[in-house]
């Protein structure tokens, strides 16, 4: 590879590292081209799967401010750059690895920290972003519905209470100090 090609590859990898929400490193040794195409399709929107030389990947990661991947950059390495829903891409990798044991998840990088292979697999157990947002919205709606019911019940309960008080006062005026009787006295002037 010519020096200018290496510089372009490093710049491209650095940009992908910088713009990705997460990166997963895998060993692809033994996978056919057709299997890798199937893998790329299973990752979902916003994810790219690319094979890169370890030395160039190491340089690009360091230039992007990512440290700690050196021990994972051993042997054939392919990179999954994930932009968007990390759980969906992690599920795609996990499910593909179940069907194709030649794909081995080495680890990854997300939110400023290096992830082990087990942590990447735990990401795959998360529900998708859309499902989590739907659950959040449902929970918020339920709480708002309960609040609306409480607020609408207060005036109704108050009206029933005042009605009962009025009926009781009509039967026994002493309950509220002579309710229902007109006062013969004129109100006193507060200014006087």
From TrEMBL:
Species for this entry: Acidipropionibacterium virtanenii
Alphabetized Pfam families for the sequence: Ribosomal_L10 (PF00466)
Protein task: Forms part of the ribosomal stalk, playing a central role in the interaction of the ribosome with GTP-bound translation factors.
UniProt similarity note: Belongs to the universal ribosomal protein uL10 family.
PANTHER family: 39S RIBOSOMAL PROTEIN L10, MITOCHONDRIAL
Subunit structure: Part of the ribosomal stalk of the 50S ribosomal subunit. The N-terminus interacts with L11 and the large rRNA to form the base of the stalk. The C-terminus forms an elongated spine to which L12 dimers bind in a sequential fashion forming a multimeric L10(L12)X complex.
Cellular component aspect of the GO annotation: large ribosomal subunit
GO molecular function terms listed in the Swiss-Prot or TrEMBL record: large ribosomal subunit rRNA binding; structural constituent of ribosome
Biological processes, Gene Ontology terms: translation
Record's keyword annotation contains rRNA-binding: yes
Key words of the record: Ribonucleoprotein, Ribosomal protein, RNA-binding, rRNA-binding
Protein name, per record: Large ribosomal subunit protein uL10
PROSITE patterns: RIBOSOMAL_L10 (PS01109)
Record-linked InterPro entries: Ribosomal_uL10, Ribosomal_uL10-like_sf, Ribosomal_uL10_bac, Ribosomal_uL10_bac_type, Ribosomal_uL10_CS_bac
